[in-house]
Automatic annotation (TrEMBL), chain A:
Residues 340-746 form the NAA35-like TPR repeats domain. One of its GO terms (cellular component) is NatC complex. InterPro entries: NAA35-like_N, Naa35_N, TPR_NAA35. The keyword RNA-binding does not apply. It comes from Phascolomyces articulosus. It is found in: Cytoplasm. The keyword Cytoplasm applies. Belongs to the MAK10 family. Its main location: cytoplasm. Residues 52-203 form the NAA35-like N-terminal domain. Keywords: Cytoplasm. This is Mak10 subunit, NatC N-terminal acetyltransferase-domain-containing protein. It comes from the Eukaryota.
UniProtKB/TrEMBL annotation, chain B:
The lineage of its organism: Eukaryota, Fungi, Fungi incertae sedis, Mucoromycota, Mucoromycotina. One of its GO terms (molecular function) is RNA binding. Pfam families: LSM. It comes from Phascolomyces articulosus. GO terms for cellular component: NatC complex. This is Sm domain-containing protein.
Length: 749, 92
């Protein structure tokens, strides 16, 4: 044998062909790499690093790095052996069948509510509801047979409450799984492979609760007569109240989950029950008076349970809100549910839209569950509120705003003119109109659904749908001209395109104003933004004027042709025209108030930014003004109307020209504009809720208008100060959104 | 506008960069060993490994993307590909 073969044989014998993956880099394993110790080298190399420098694979980004588990961090590193603290020991050895004192049960009930509220506000189940040890022993808990003793009654109450809580979580989970809100951003639906015990039906749990309530009631009665002395009434009553509230909550969620909004009134009644219970404060046995009065039960909750549950991303740090805060959140959620449960009773579609918009704007912003629920109620089973056709919905919406002749949208309701009925174009026009309505229906429903997203997401989505409405407007113009060909009106109507245009303008206005509320703009951009806002607002004014004109023309035609007629239908027709005209009027006043506010604040900004230099303006660091301008106008640039669109140069020139006036004149201008705003606001405040279509949101609407009024006052005071005292022109100013989320007050510090 | 130019690599940094995307074996203070693809490190020697396996004595399990803080490092090794001693001798 030559030496080569020997070496070969030796080499082959040395090969370890056992596939043993558990040998960590055994250097005899040919398949595994040899390892080279670079510990010292790493020290040297990293010394060469600059502060903050790192080396990484080019494809590896910050976003990827965020999901890395940090080793030796007890919250994330599940392989770490940690010192078991007292709570861990207690949690592991916790006996779920152990009898509880009433005040211990009280603590558990309140703690569970905190966990639920934390979950609804977006934290994961593993860090909230699942930290309750009882949740992992539901079967044992449920199958316990409790004796007819006072202790047994407390155990039954515990069982009923925990199971009631599970069912409530299940209903909430079912709603959130419909995916109306953004995963991770708003809410996490991760169940970690654990069940929510669907096998315990609602009726089973209701029975448990009822039984427990009866037993508690019995204990209370017997304590009052002196028969039962083990548990005093002042410890039992708070438990009873909470269990009763839990029952109402479960019923409410159950009723609200029925399709076609059939049981909404029942749901509303249940949620109102809860509010009644929470509102009682004087009674020392009420829920509100006994918050936080429980005794801690060690081991009943284990915050470290998330270490045992598999998750894709490391858990975010979480502190549970206090008992008081949780009850506040709960009350707010229930108040929202009461409001939402009345939503399918709406006097008009515009009123309904106003309700949705006020829901979207109300602070504190709504929780993901309410938002999702409102969304589901509005549109499910391909129908509005589960019952109405979307085409009918959009037809009514168009009718409410631009009031085309009824025979166009509702051919069955009134006889069309003879020349229309005889026209060869009739069928084709009807077909085109039906197609347009089909096309427009879902974008309109989406406009409602957008209001159910979180505030930032609302703005983002609106930016995206603007182009859709631009296209709809174009299609609407085609429909308008077809109708004109058919009907040969004396004037060229633009019913459908005006409707689409007005909604598009509304959205544009909202996008710009939301930029203030969401604190997107830096103060050096304000003047530019206000100039663009004025463009949009003035386009809206022209659109409203045009619609008013058209409706008035139509109304006059009807009046002419039926001068002496006491025909009921004609009178109804005229009344409906007036109804729409009144609404248009309210919109015109609101628009006027906005235009004047924007102009007034713009002029004030010119003074404090360019003349007296009282406003500290941030210098652009990462971009320059033209780039920033293009960025801000990005959602609007592709739109075909309104035109002309401003360029950076035209805006800059306008600001320069305006700022060249002297300070006194600018202040006078600001004063005049704001004064006109105030007059429009006063008129608005005196309008009826029918005229402003704010029947479903009267309070928030009033609050908003009052906010504008207060903003006017605050700015007026500043103008006066700047006018009267030269000294005031040397102190710095702040731009604060004190009374209104999108209209600021410029205040002297 | 203020832009920072990336610093020029020293020979050490260049060599360390060459270890990126290769396997590393890291022993930490509590005795566990992590083997994974070396992705990233910084001045504090915090190291990110991908597709990582954790070994504790004889047990091992997959942990995925991990970040090992520099302060817990005991030993850091990289897969040695230019070592010919364990190679396959073709010519005697």
């Amino acid at each position: 044998m030559d030496s080569m073969t020997d070496s070969l044989r030796e080499a082959i014998s040395n090969m370890d062909i056992t596939n043993d993956p558990s040998r960590p880099g055994n250097s005899h394993n040919f398949l595994a790499p040899a390892w080279k110790d670079i510990t010292k080298f790493l020290d040297d190399a990293t010394d060469d690093f600059q502060v903050g420098q790192l080396i990484h694979l080019q494809s590896f980004t910050l976003f990827d790095a965020m999901s890395a588990i940090e080793i030796m961090d007890p919250k994330m590193d599940t392989g770490m052996l940690i010192e078991e603290d007292d709570n861990d020991k207690a949690a592991q050895s916790f006996n779920v069948s152990r009898t509880l004192e009433p005040r211990e049960l009280l603590w558990i009930m309140d703690r569970l509510l905190s966990c639920e509220m934390a979950w609804v506000s977006g934290h994961s189940l593993a860090q909230t509801v699942y930290t309750c040890t009882y949740f992992h022993y539901i079967r044992e808990l449920a199958s316990e047979q409790c004796e007819k003793t006072p202790e047994g009654a407390i155990q039954n109450a515990l069982k009923a409450y925990v199971l009631g809580c599970v069912k409530c979580c299940q209903h909430i989970f079912n709603e959130m799984s419909v995916c109306n809100v953004y995963e991770e951003e708003d809410f996490t639906t991760n169940l970690f492979g654990l069940s929510l015990y669907e096998q315990y039906t609602d009726s089973m749990v209701m029975n448990m609760i009822d039984t427990a309530l009866l037993e508690l009631r019995d204990l209370v009665d017997r304590a009052n007569t002196g028969e039962q002395t083990q548990f005093p009434v002042d410890e039992l009553a708070p438990l009873y109240n909470r269990l009763f509230m839990r029952k109402s909550y479960l019923f409410g969620l159950l009723y609200a989950s029925h399709a076609q909004c059939t049981y909404l009134p029942h749901a509303k009644a249940e949620f109102e029950n809860i509010l009644q219970l929470l509102n009682v404060k004087e009674d020392c046995l009420s829920i509100s008076a006994t918050i936080g009065k429980g005794i801690v039960v060690e081991g009943a909750f284990d915050p470290n349970i998330n270490r045992k549950l598999t998750a894709q991303a490391p858990p975010r740090p979480i502190t549970l809100p206090s008992d008081e805060e949780s009850y506040t959140h709960f009350r707010e959620l229930v108040e929202r549910m009461v409001s939402i449960c009345g939503v399918n009773q709406y006097p008009s579609i515009i009123s309904l839209l106003n309700y949705f918009k006020s829901f979207a704007a109300k602070q504190p912003y709504a929780d993901p569950f309410s938002r999702s629920k409102l969304n589901t109620l509005l549109y499910h089973d391909l129908r509005v509120f589960g019952t109405e056709s979307v085409v009918n919905f959009v037809s009514l919406a168009i009718d409410e705003l631009v009031r085309p002749p009824r025979w166009i949208l509702f051919p069955g309701s009134i006889r069309a003119p003879d020349h229309v009925l005889a026209s060869p174009l009739l069928e084709e026009t009807q077909k085109a109109l039906a197609e347009f309505l089909e096309r427009a229906a879902l974008p309109l429903v989406d406009y409602f659904k957008i209001q159910c997203h979180n505030r930032s997401r609302q703005r983002r989505i609106l930016c995206k749908v603007l182009q859709e409405w631009d296209a709809l407007q174009d299609e609407a113009e085609v429909i308008d001209s077809k109708i004109q060909d058919l009907a040969e009106f004396g004037f060229s109507p633009s019913y459908f395109s005006s409707w689409a245009y007005l909604i598009k303008l509304e959205m544009m206005e909202t996008v710009v104003l939301l930029g203030f509320e969401l604190e997107l703009y830096s103060n050096n951009e304000y003047t530019m933004i206000y100039l663009y806002l004025l463009d949009v607002l003035k386009a809206r004014k022209r659109a409203l004027d045009h619609i008013e004109e058209q409706i008035t023309l139509q109304k006059n035609e009807v009046l002419q042709t039926s001068k002496k007629s006491k025909d009921r239908y004609i009178q109804q027709d005229v009344a409906s025209f007036n109804h729409v005209l009144q609404y248009i009027q309210s919109q015109k006043y609101y628009n006027e108030a906005q235009i004047r506010m924007a102009s007034g604040i713009y002029n004030m900004l010119l003074v404090v930014q360019y003349k007296t230099k009282q406003l500290d303006v941030l210098k652009p660091r990462y971009d320059d003004p033209p780039t920033r301008f293009r960025q801000r106008l990005k959602p609007f640039l592709p739109l075909s109307t309104p035109r002309p669109q401003p360029t950076f140069e035209s805006i800059e020139k306008t600001i320069d020209t305006n700022a060249s006036l002297d300070t006194e004149n600018l202040l006078k201008l600001a004063d005049a504009h704001l004064g006109a705003a105030k007059e429009a606001i006063e008129i608005l405040l005196n309008m009826s809720q029918e005229q402003t279509r704010s029947e479903m949101c009267r309070e928030p609407y009033n609050k908003e208008i009052m906010g504008m009024k207060r903003t006017y006052l605050g700015n007026k005071i500043t103008i006066m100060k700047l006018f009267t005292d030269e000294k005031n022109r040397s102190s710095k100013v702040n731009v604060i959104f004190r009374y209104h989320p999108s209209w600021p007050v410029i205040e002297i510090k | 506008m203020n832009t920072t130019t990336p610093p020029v690599d020293t020979p050490n940094i260049k060599k360390l960069r060459s270890y990126l995307n290769f396997k590393a074996r890291i022993t930490i203070t509590d005795g566990r060993i992590f083997i994974g693809t070396f992705i990233c490190t910084d001045k504090q020697k915090n190291i990110i490994l991908a597709q990582t396996k954790e070994f504790r004595g004889d047990e091992h399990r997959m942990v995925g993307l991990v970040m090992i803080p520099g302060k817990h490092l005991v030993k850091v090794e990289t897969e040695d590909l230019d070592d010919d001693d364990n190679g396959f001798p073709i010519y005697g």
